Each structure stands twice: as C-alpha cells, then as structure tokens.
Amino acid sequence: MQVNSLVDTVHDVQDLLWVDKVAGALQTGRLCPWVSTFHPDKLPCQVDGSFYNGAYNAGLKVVFSDGTAWMVRFPRGGMVSTEHADEKVAMEVTALTLIRDKTTIPVPKVQAWGLAASNLLGLGPFIMMDFIEGVSLSKILNDPTAEKPTRLMREDISDKDIILTGLAVCHGRGAEAQSPVRPLTYKAHNILHVGGVDTFGDRSQGFATTTEYFQHVFGQDWKQLVQQPNSVFGLYDGKNNYKEFKRLQVLIPDLVNAKYNSCKFKLICDDLGLANLIVRSEEDLTVVGVVDLEWSYIGPAQLFGSPWWLLQDRPINPEWDCHLGDDPPKMAPRYFKYLEIFLRILEEEEAKMPGNEERELSSLIKWSQDSGAMWLHMILSNGFNDHRTFPFTHLRQHFGDDAWVKRTVDFSNSEEPEAFAVQKLSELDKHDKAVDKLEADKALVDSGDMKKEDFIARYLVDSDLTSLCSPFAVKTEIKNDEVLSEEVAV
Question: Three-state DSSP class for 282?
Fold first, then answer.
C-alpha cells in the first residue's frame, strides 16, 4: 500500500522548514550554548561532524572542552507527528533508563531530555545522551551473499539479559504514569502520519490478552484500508484486499499461543534491528552500544516470535511484493538461512543458561514458524499492508491457497468485495486529482515562488482531507469476540 501523498508531501515540506530552523540555530551560534546549559559544569562545546540523519530523527555529536561527547537528538519536524513527538521521546527515555538500571545491556546514559515546550530553540523535544563510538552492525553485515555469517554475542552480558523477554514491566506505573495505556507504536504513528488515518482508538483502554491486542491491531489495518483514499490502485486490487483482510481476521485467534495469551506484556521495540547495534570496529565485533530505542512500549511477548530484523529491512518492502500465484521473492531463502543460523546459535546460548531448560525464546520462534504466526506478527507490526506483501504472501502459502480459502471466508456469493472496490476507485480518482493540484503548488515551493509556511497552511490547516474518506463501515475494535462497527463519515 502506498503512502497518502496528500499528507506525506505536506510533511516533507514541514521537514524542510524544520531543517531551516536547525540550520539557523547552528549558523547563529545558538545551539552549542544551549546544549552547554545542560552540562553539570556548564562546559562549552562544539559540533563535531555533520548530522546523523535517520527516518525519524536527526542528531549531532557535540564535544565538550573536557573531551566528553554527547549525542544531541531531535525528532525530525515533519517526519514525526507534532501531536506525538513529546510522547515518542518520553517513551525512549523510559526504555533507556529501564534497561540501563535493570540490565547490563550497554545503552547510552541519558544526560538530559525535554519536551517541545522546554526547548528554547523551538526545535521540538530532545534527548542528550552519551555518544557511543563505533560502527553500526548493519554496515558490516549487509552482504546477503556472505559466505561466512558472523556469530555475534557479547560475553560480558549476564545470562538474564540475553533475552529481553525476561523484562516483565507493568505499563502505566512510575515514570510511565503520564503515558496513555495504549502505546504509541511505529505502526499506528505511520498510518496516521503518512496515511492520514487515525487508528489509535480510545487510548485510555488497555488490553487483557494477546488476542485482544492482536484484534485491535488488525482493526488498524482494516481501518487504514477503508479510510485511506489511495489504499488500493485498481478494481482487482481492491477486491482482493477486501477478501484477504477478512480472511486474516478470522484466522487471528488460531494464531495466538495459549501460553502467551494471558501472561504479562513485555518490553517491545518496533524499530530494533542490526542498525541499533554498535560494535567497536569492523575488525572487533564487540558490541559496545545498543542505541535508538524509539517506538518502545509494553506489548505481547508473543511478538518476540518473529525476528523480522533478519530481513535487514521492513517486511513490507514493496520490492518483495508478490501477486497471487507468483513465486516468493529471491530474498526469502536468505531470510530462512539467517533464521536457521539465528535459532541454532540461540539454542546453544540458551543451553548455557541455568534454569532455562524450556529454551523459551527459541521454542517460541519455532512455534511461530511452524504455526504460521511468524507472518502474522510481521503484518501486525507494520502498517501499509496489502495482500501482496512479503508476510501476507507467506502466511497464505503456509496454509496453502485452497486451505486458506476453505478455512476462512467464502465470498463466492457476496457482492461486498465488488462494492468496496468500486467505492475505493472513486476515492482514488478524487485523491489523484487533489494530488495533481498539490504537486503544482509544491513546484512553486521548490522554485521559491511560494513560501513553505503558506504551502503548509494551505494543505495542512485549511484543506479538509477528510472529505475523501470512505462511507463503508469500519470494523475497528474487537472485544469479547464481538466486532464493533464504526461508521466513517463522508
């Protein structure tokens, strides 16, 4: 599924405007004196190098007069929802503090942080933390043809810290008390920010079981499919997405592990992958840091059953899409190869851990692979799903096309998929016409004939994009085996 250009393009311009503000703070010499106010001895500092840019954050290394170095990091304006930027930073600070206090995992020490209202530079919320020297592991282990995959394990981390599922945390207590019960996930944020659809629901309501949580998250996918005006690109695509999502909904209860359905939720990071691991050098693969723990929250432990990060990309990469009947993408064998290596090494390490005879994590991953839940976890962890994505394709193949259809929903005599697809094509037409006008104005911004602020005001403040929403009923919540319908206003 593609992003909604009507909101994504506006946010791109917001990001450019934010970059201008950062550049202004640097050029006028205001940034370093501001950072120094947070140093315990108020030491002067200077910027070392250029920006560390990610999809959602921008950071600068600053070095103080005594030689100590900090990473000063901001959520990028336009790339992170203004409404949720404070919460995103607070969540990461809580996760870093928790891990640093309760484990030996080498996360950076947070030296200072603040919400947007406290930033005198007007650059939004921020985190200042120790700068960890080293090399990102993703830059070293990014060769899919490597003959000798590297075994990587920190020997000085205690046994109880190797598996993060050992961290059982009650959400909404202590430092987290001010956060809504329902988490700010990578998925819900992206659906809102670049899809234009709010799928959070009542954030004061929590979840008693994994089943409830999975059904809620499926409701986010369904609501995005219905409400995002360009969620399908043709009649065939619209009908198939309608059918496949309905079938997926029926399967969810069968893909919940009974052992994990009612157990305590655990610390989850939606964006944890090889890029988060810092090693000493390309020659010395000692892990010296685990960084960028944004999109951390408390969620079902069953989600640990899908090590999607072995893909070294998001599972919804459109280059891996498959149409019905197509062979899986070429990277699929690579993923299974890495999964086999990961499981083998994990089991070896688990065998060394006293009291871990059940080998809980490796057993969960094997169950997820054998049951097909592995692919469900990948779908639930990402937005912008459709029937062609890598995990959706593999979930269908796991059951087999015939069994997939027979054990789920029969649409042979239903007019719903056709009616849905026709409605979506009407919305797509309106969307494309609106995008043409938007892109014409964006060209004026690029040429300097329209101010960025005027463009943002025209399309983010004055424009009523909700007029493109579908009138179809959206199944957004599932509680106690009942589906609640929410009518979407035209």
Answer: coil
